Amino acid sequence: MKCTEAGIFLQKNILSRTDSTCNLFIKMHISARYISYKAARNWYANLKLVKPTPQDPPFKHVVQIGDPTLRQVAVKLYEDEIGTPEIQFLIKRLKYVFKKYNCVGLSAPQIGASFQILLAEFNHDHLKIYSKKEIESKEITLQPETVIINPVMKVLDYNKVIFSESCESVKGFYADVPRYRKIELKGLTEEGKPISLIAQGWWARILQHEIDHLNGKLYTDIMEPKTLTCSCWNIVNERGGRVQIPFGHQ
Fold it and tell me: What does the similarity note say (predicted)?
């Protein structure tokens, strides 16, 4: 529908109504002969009369806590499935969202696809926000982009280390979470080849976090409950509660 057609439609079908909602609409637009289609659509959307077109997974956004997919044990892939167009598209989409959100770790269930695929990386940009003291205490090291399919974890050091953790699927919060200090991970690459690696410190934490996602778990399941914190609580107070947390990439 063109703008002019939208204006005529609204005049004939909406401005003739006398209910309170339309009276408000008339007051808002009494001086305008026509309104744009975009303005009309936005107005309707606010009234929930026009619903956004549903998207199908894998999504271009990260799903949030409460989404049933995050509580499912992800499906393992057969080796001959890894090279299929569908799975390769899923991995491509996972990488897209990973970069868009500047993640250090992301799993397929977090974009609505319940398959045993995780992606992790720790690069120079990620490193910039940490002090030298933090880098040493958390054993932070640079790590390349790594895709692991059907990961199997073996604990190499049962001592647990506690540090704050956040998650793109629990937007706006963080908490202290205990994790094993050192693990071994085996699985398959995105080409279907065997992969084995040993991770320690922060890298081990990132991988354990993503493996939890593949098993239908979130860090909130194992966190120290009293440490759960809203990441912007002070800003909420400063601005009298007028704070919005975006759930998509801005």
Answer: Belongs to the polypeptide deformylase family.
